[in-house]
Design brief:
Strand order of the largest sheet of chain B: 3-2-6-7-8-5-4-18
Largest interface: A-B, 23 and 40 residues
Helix content of chain B: under 10%
Shape of chain A: globular
Strand content of chain B: 35-45%
Radius of gyration of chain A: 12 Å
Largest sheet of chain A: 3 strands, mixed
Strand content of chain A: 25-35%
Radius of gyration of chain B: 17 Å
Oligomer: heterodimer
Order of helices and strands of chain A: HEEHEE
Structural class of chain A: alpha+beta
Distance between the termini of chain B: 28 Å
Helix content of chain A: 25-40%
Order of helices and strands of chain B: EEEEEEEHHEEEEEEEEEEHE
Shape of chain B: globular
Number of strands of chain B: 18
Number of helices of chain B: 3
Chain lengths: 67, 248
């Protein structure tokens, strides 16, 4: 999928979200947002996260480190 | 094969690094679009140093590579990943006033180029990547990196060698940690697959059949990962920003 143009308002929300501790990343595919988090503790926290008009899936990926 | 050892023929998948780093993986021999020379490519954080000055050694320093005995080239250029020291200093003092200029910039690649200038004449270069049996294969094609979710990939890295994985996302924005600070990368490929420290720089190929072959396509470079996932910067951004080509 080519990089999707993200609505400015949504991008601002996701950019703020990226600054949160325990967050590893995100992707937007149509009306679905996938949130990547460091561990199960943060997954539980972010499963409560809601953005109007989007379904949210939380995946525990672990922290991404330069290898 | 011993990917951490000294090789006489340089190709993708073996230990390499600048004298200022530990060890990563040589992505391979590419063509420099700016001057049509053959160059060595890996991640910026594997080749980190000063362009025109810092030596690149094979194997990487952590695997015993020393300058000048194991020197294979000199850092030529890189695409900046970290903000410059000057910018970091200005933003530390005037961050509130210059909020927009100081806000995080999202990156697309972690990659660098080195010249091939070996210190001894027993070293040569070959296009392609080392397989587990020590043979070199050259997947001839490339893929920009878009529209590849669900595709099977393989990579060869200094630490975990040959591994396979599956692409779970191809437009992710991710936070990558460099020691105690992070950089945000956007338009990245996320692969569910195995990697470890030292695999950075591994070339990643889209698999066309059940086994690696010359019909496979280079889709990008591995540069970060967690226990079960790794991150790949896209080939299209390597061409656009680093100005290199895999197999012209």
């Amino acid at each position: 999928m080519a990089q999707q143009k993200i609505d400015k308002k949504l991008k601002k929300i996701l950019d703020t979200f990226m600054k949160e501790k325990g967050v590893s990343g995100y992707s937007v595919n149509g009306n679905k947002i996938v949130l990547y988090v460091d561990d199960e503790e943060h997954a539980t926290l972010f499963r409560k996260f809601e953005i109007s008009g989007y379904s949210i899936e939380v995946i525990v990926t672990g922290r991404f480190k330069a290898l | 094969m011993d990917r951490k050892g000294r090789v006489s023929v340089l190709a993708g998948g073996v230990s390499i690094g600048s004298t200022k780093t530990t060890a990563g993986t040589l992505s391979g021999v590419f063509q420099d679009i700016t001057d049509n020379t053959e160059v060595l490519v890996s991640n910026w954080h594997v080749f980190r140093g000063d362009p025109g000055k810092t030596a690149i050694v094979q194997p990487g320093p952590y695997d015993g590579g020393k300058d000048p005995h194991d020197r294979v080239g000199i850092l030529k250029r890189y695409v900046p990943v970290m903000p410059s020291t000057l910018k970091a200093y200005i933003c530390m003092i005037f961050g509130q006033l210059l909020r927009k200029w100081c806000s995080e910039e999202y990156r697309l690649i972690d990659a660098a180029v080195a010249t091939f200038q070996p210190s001894s004449n027993d070293r040569s270069i070959a296009k392609g990547v080392y397989m587990e049996d020590g043979s070199i294969i050259l997947p001839k094609g490339t893929h920009p990196g878009d529209g590849v979710v669900g595709r099977k990939v393989w990579k060869c890295g200094r630490t975990t060698g040959y591994t396979e994985g599956v692409i779970v996302n191809d437009n992710a924005t991710v936070k990558v940690w460099y020691n105690d600070e992070y950089v945000v990368f956007t338009d990245q490929i996320v692969v569910k697959g195995q990697s470890q420290g030292g695999d950075s720089g591994s070339p990643v190929f889209l698999m066309q059949g059940d086994q690696p072959s010359e019909n496979d396509q280079l889709v990008g470079l591995l540069f970060a990962g967690s226990d079960e996932y790794f991150i790949v910067c896209k080939y299209k951004h390597l061409e656009d920003l680093l100005k290199v080509r895999w197999n012209p």
